[in-house]
Structures are given as C-alpha cells and as structure tokens.
Write a structure and sequence with these properties.
Length: about 450
Amino acid sequence: MYVSSRLHSAIMIRTLSASARTVFLVRQAKSLEFVGRHRHSGSYDVVVVGGGIVGLASARELILRHPTLSFALLEKEKELSMHQSGHNSGVIHSGIYYTPGSLKAQLCVRGATLAYDYCQKKNIPFKRCGKLIVATEREEIPRLKALYERGMKNKVRDLTIVDARGIREREPFCKGIMALDSPYTGIVDWRRVALRYGKDFEEAGGTVTTEFEAADITAMRESSARSSEGLKYPIAIRSSKGDEVHCRYVLTCGGLYSDRLSQISGCSPEPRIVPFRGDYLVLKPEKRYLVRGNIYPVPDPRFPFLGVHFTPRMDGSVWLGPNAVLAFKREGYELFDLNIRDLTDALSFRGLQRLVLKNISYGLGEMYRGVFIGSQVKILQKFIPELSLSDVVRGPSGVRAQALDVDGNLVDDFVFDGGVGEVGSRVLHVRNAPSPAATSSLAIAEMIANEVESRFSL
C-alpha cells in the first residue's frame, strides 16, 4: 500500500507546476511525519507488541475496558497468529496437570469456560470430544491417582477414574488398565479464535499494523518542533524498516521473542527463551476410526516434557505426537531450518547446557524418534496396539517458546515483568505464557489488563 501510494504521488508531481510541486512535497512530508530518519506511523495511549493469541486477547480486553483510550497492536508478520497460535494441537485443556493454586491451574480452568462460551457466542466451531489419560502399566497407577487428586483440587469439571472396561467404552481401540476421563476437554482451531479476537479489537476502534517488527523501544527525544508530542507520548517503538510508533505505555506479548523484546527496552534478559520443535505424525484417513478423542499418557516426572499423544483435529484429521527437540531457529518448522544467532544464543546459554546434561538420554531419544518414526509409532502402540507404521505419515511441526532459568529449570508458570527508569516503568512484558496459553487466553487477558491498569493507572 505504501509503495503504490508513493508511485501515485510521483505521477501527480509530474503533472504539477514548479510552485505547486513545492507545496505538494511539503504537504507530503508533513503527512508522513518524518522524525529524523524514522517515519511516524501514529500515536496511541497503549501499544501491544505481538499478534499471537495472548497479545490479541489482551488488546481486546483492554480496549473493551477502556473505549475512550487509543490502542494499537503491532505484528511483525504479514498476518496475525502465524506462529505458536497457529501451530499447536488445537486442544481446549481442562486444567488437570497443573500445580493447585498456581496461575497456570487457575487460568486454565477459568480460561476453558470462557473459551467455550466465547466460541459459542461467536459461532466458532468446537468439539467437546473429551480426553483419556491412560495408564498402560501398574507402576503408573499411583501417579494417575495423584493426577486425579490434583485435578479435583483444581476444580476440573466432570473428572472421573475409569477401569479397562471404561476405557474401551470410550475408546474401543485403546488398551489400558486405568484412566482419567475428562469429558470437558475439547478441540478448536485456535488460530480462528485468535483472528476473531483481532476482529473484535478492530471493531472496537483498535488499530492493527502488520509487518512491523519492533527493533527498538526507547524514550522520545524531545525537540522544539515535537516537544508536546514527546511529553504526551514519551515512548517510541521503532521497526526494523524505519517506521515509528509513539505511545504512553507498551505491553509486549512476544512469544518466541519475549526475551529479546525485554532486552531492547532495557529490561532483564531472563528468563531466556529456548525454542523446542515438536514434530507430529498424522493418521492416514482410512485409519481415523482408531481414535475418537484425545488420548494422553500419564506424565513421567523424570522427563521435562509430556510425551506423545493422540489428538483429533477440527478438520477430521488425527495428529500423533509430538516429540520435543531443540529447534535451530526460533521459527524453524522444518528439520533443517537454521538461524545462526538463534542457535548460538541457545547453545551458549548456561541454562540449556544444564538442562541437556540432566536429560541427555531423553534428549537423544527424542532426536532419534524424530528421524526414525517407527520408534515413535512403537510408543504409540502401547495405547493403540492395532496402529502400524504404514498407518501414519509425517505431519506438521510446531515450535514451543520454552522459558528456562540459568539453572536449567523449565519455567513452568506465567511470568510478567517490567523495569525501572523512563522506558522500563512504562513497559509490561509477558515473559512466559506456556501451554495451555491458548486455552487460558481470555483469562490471561483479564489478568494482564488488571496488571496494566494497576501499573499504569489507566
């Protein structure tokens, strides 16, 4: 749009007289509002950086609470919700796994209820297909029962324990000795939900700007010509292309880049984001009858990630997996995607080095299963013995933004922080929004909006 308008301007200039041409160029310069080398793209009360599901939900919540304020949302891609929000399993989680009393547990349980209500109100298709967490070995039963107690403390709806017969009634091809049955678990297309949040935001008067990659967040440099602008909107967000947006306050929801957004605003670089890629297999269409709902393993506390599972999708397909391996690029969805900076940042981080040392055999196993899918199918056969290698094909991949501390511990709950000084005091960073962030998105948005109101006295 900008290129075509420049071309249109050039055509108009050729048809003008010399004096008129001068006036036209002056007006054009004023309308573009150049500030030094940067093109000013607008001034707002609050700017949200990041057009994933958390950023969109938060922008929506804020503008609905404060319709008299001006809001903008900046996204570096051509479209919204292109990364984690558009590359996930599509599950509406019920809140079973999470530590009672944690933000993760509270937000998931409330978020699931809000998500179902929102989808129904906005006519977004979803299926409440349920989930079985299946114990296939006796040693898993104590952990399964502990998981049931945790779910009950979290007030998960309709959670029950079923025996082998109950498993077969719900999943005829699934083999297990005991399972947790969570009928409140469902599936939805989370990218479709996220885009609807964006539409709500725009309909309420918000401005969405795509292809704006935030490269710098700094205090405005006052000048005699723009001193009033600098006083009213003291923060400048500059893009990698030279565009500039001014605002009073900033909320960042950067997902895979949340640590770097914090750094460019002068805030803490930790917790650090390390990208982990998860590769899925997909059941061939003629074998979809093997799975009705979500089938999950009992989590093993020795390992950092959940393990492979069966997930039906809204389009009728069934995904199997994922594994979890280090991604060589923060947005690298293919096996050989590589970004030198991303890889160097990850490998040089002491936290990742310690995580690898603690889980070296597990990590090598995940890498092996990613290459040789027969080994992944073998694990899946513990739950559905009829499954064979010929029943599956390689499917899509997603990249998870895993926050790590310097000791190599996975940061398992939501992290929000800001800073001090002229810039840091006006910025709120969402540093870690782990799974189930999509399920929890509307509840997270409520909490973020409360925090924004408290910190910035909106």
